[in-house]
C-alpha cells in the first residue's frame, strides 16, 4: 500500500518508520522548509522510549538523553528544598529509564531513519479528497498526490482533524505561556543529574539534563492569551515574572541567551476526540490529542499512536477502513484520558484556584516521592507498548 503522512514531526516520522518496516511505500509532507522544531526539548518517559526501542533507534536515543536520576522541588522565592527524591523507581517499575532529549536532535534522527529522500518539505496541504478507493491531497502550490491511506500528523492546528471531524475543531487555552530553551549545565541552578523545579505564585522554573552538558529549561507564566510579544523583547518577560526569586532562578535567567535558544509558546489543548478516522484518513499525534505539557506525555502519546498504527496494519486484513477504525478504538480512550490528566495537573499547579495550588505546595513539603512516582508511573501504565505487563 501507499501512505501519505502529513507532518514530519515526532509522530509522523515514527509512524512512517513503522509502516516502511512493514514494506509499505510511504511519503511524508511538511510545510516547514527546514528542521526547526517548536520547543527545545521534550520528556521521553518510559513508554515513549520503549516505542523508539521498537523502532530500532534505542541506542541513539539513549546517547542523546540526559541522565535524570533525581527530582526536586524548591520554593521559588527562598530556594528552600520542598522535596527531593530518586527517580529510580520509575525505571525499576516500568523496565525502562526515561530521558529528556533535545527535540531537534530526536526529530533529525527519526527523519534520517525514515529516509530524507521520502520527505517533502515546504509543502502545505490545503485540501483532502477521499473517493473510497484512493485519497488525494492538494497542496498550496497546486501540486497533488494520491495514496491508499492518508495519516494526518499535522499538529495542533491540523487540517486533517477538521476533515475527519467534518467541521473546524476549536482549541482551548490552558491559561499560561511557556518559555523554553537550552542552556549550559550550571550546578547553581540544580545538579546535573536532577530534574529541578522552582515553584511559587502559580509559576514554575524548571531544568532537565540533556546530552552535551546542557539543561533543557522551561518556565510557565499564567497570563491571558494573545498578549503581544516581539522576539526583540528577549527574556524581559521572564525578568519581570521572576524578579526576586531564589538565586538558582537568577542564575538560570542569566544563562539564557535569546539569540541562541529561547522559545515562547502559548499553551492550548483540544477536548478529547471520539473520532480519529474518516474513510481512508486518520489523525495521529497532536492532531488527534493536542495535550498541555503538564504531565510530559504529549510526544510519548504520539509515539504510542505510531506503535498501534503499525501493529494494526501488520495484523488486520479486512480492509483499510476497518484497520483504521481498530487503530482509533485502541487509542481514543487512553489518549483522551491523558489530555484530561494534563489539564487537571495544569489547573493544580498554575494557581487558577489559588487554594488548590497552595494545598499542592504544602503537600510538596511533606512529599517523600512516593506519590509523585505513583503519578508518573500511572501515566505510563496502560500504554499499549507494555503489552499488558505495565508495572512490576
Automatic annotation (TrEMBL):
SUPFAM superfamilies: FAD/NAD(P)-binding domain (SSF51905). Pathway: Purine metabolism; urate degradation. It is an enzyme of class 1 (oxidoreductase). Residues 4-339 form the FAD-binding domain. Keywords: FAD, Flavoprotein, Monooxygenase, Oxidoreductase, Purine metabolism. It catalyses: urate + NADH + O2 + H(+) = 5-hydroxyisourate + NAD(+) + H2O. GO terms for molecular function: FAD binding; FAD-dependent urate hydroxylase activity; urate oxidase activity. InterPro entries: FAD-bd (IPR002938), FAD-dep_Monooxygenase_BioMet (IPR050493), FAD/NAD-bd_sf (IPR036188), HpxO (IPR047712). Gene3D superfamilies: FAD/NAD(P)-binding domain. One of its GO terms (biological process) is urate catabolic process. Its EC number is 1.14.13.113. Its cofactor is FAD. It comes from the Bacteria. Pfam families: FAD_binding_3. Belongs to the FAD-dependent urate hydroxylase family. This is FAD-dependent urate hydroxylase. It comes from Microbacterium betulae.
Amino acid at each position: 500500500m501507499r501512505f501519505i503522512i502529513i507532518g514530519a514531526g515526532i509522530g509522523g516520522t515514527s509512524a512512517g518508520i513503522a509502516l516502511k518496516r512493514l514494506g509499505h511505500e510511504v511519503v511524508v509532507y511538511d510545510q516547514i522548509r527546514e528542521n526547526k522544531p517548536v520547543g527545545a526539548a521534550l520528556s521521553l518517559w518510559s513508554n515513549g522510549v520503549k516505542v523508539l526501542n521498537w523502532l530500532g533507534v534505542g541506542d541513539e536515543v539513549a546517547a542523546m538523553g540526559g541522565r535524570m536520576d533525581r527530582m526536586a522541588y524548591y520554593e521559588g522565592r527562598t530556594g528552600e528544598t520542598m522535596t527531593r527524591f530518586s527517580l529510580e523507581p520509575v525505571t525499576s517499575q516500568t523496565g525502562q529509564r526515561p530521558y529528556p532529549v533535545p527535540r531537534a536532535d530526536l526529530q533529525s534522527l527519526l527523519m534520517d531513519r525514515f529516509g530524507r529522500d521520502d520527505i517533502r518539505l515546504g509543502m502545505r496541504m490545503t485540501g483532502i479528497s477521499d473517493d473510497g478507493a484512493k485519497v488525494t491531497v492538494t497542496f498550496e502550490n497546486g501540486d497533488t498526490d494520491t495514496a491508499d491511506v492518508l495519516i494526518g500528523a499535522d499538529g495542533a492546528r491540523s487540517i486533517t482533524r477538521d476533515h475527519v471531524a467534518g467541521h473546524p475543531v476549536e482549541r482551548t487555552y490552558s491559561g499560561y505561556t511557556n518559555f523554553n530553551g537550552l542552556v549550559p549545565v550550571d550546578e547553581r541552578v540544580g545538579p546535573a543529574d536532577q530534574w529541578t523545579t522552582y515553584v511559587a505564585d502559580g509559576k514554575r522554573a524548571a531544568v532537565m539534563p540533556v546530552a552535551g552538558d546542557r539543561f533543557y529549561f522551561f518556565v510557565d507564566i499564567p497570563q491571558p492569551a494573545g498578549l503581544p510579544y516581539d522576539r526583540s523583547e528577549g527574556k524581559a518577560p521572564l525578568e519581570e515574572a521572576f524578579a526576586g526569586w531564589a538565586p538558582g532562578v537568577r542564575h538560570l535567567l542569566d544563562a539564557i541567551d535569546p539569540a541562541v535558544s529561547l522559545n515562547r509558546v502559548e499553551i492550548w489543548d483540544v477536548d478529547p476526540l471520539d473520532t480519529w478516522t474518516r474513510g481512508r484518513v486518520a489523525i495521529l499525534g497532536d492532531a488527534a490529542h493536542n495535550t498541555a505539557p503538564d504531565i510530559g506525555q504529549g510526544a510519548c502519546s504520539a509515539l504510542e499512536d505510531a506503535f498501534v498504527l503499525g501493529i494494526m496494519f501488520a495484523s488486520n486484513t479486512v480492509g483499510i477502513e476497518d484497520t483504521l477504525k481498530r487503530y482509533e478504538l485502541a487509542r481514543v480512550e487512553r489518549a483522551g484520558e491523558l489530555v484530561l490528566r494534563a489539564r487537571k495537573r495544569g489547573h493544580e499547579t498554575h494557581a487558577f484556584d489559588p487554594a488548590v495550588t497552595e494545598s499542592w505546595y504544602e503537600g510538596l513539603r511533606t512529599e517523600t516521592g512516593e506519590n509523585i512516582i505513583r503519578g508518573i508511573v500511572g501515566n505510563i501504565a496502560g500504554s499499549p507498548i507494555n503489552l499488558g505487563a505495565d508495572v512490576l
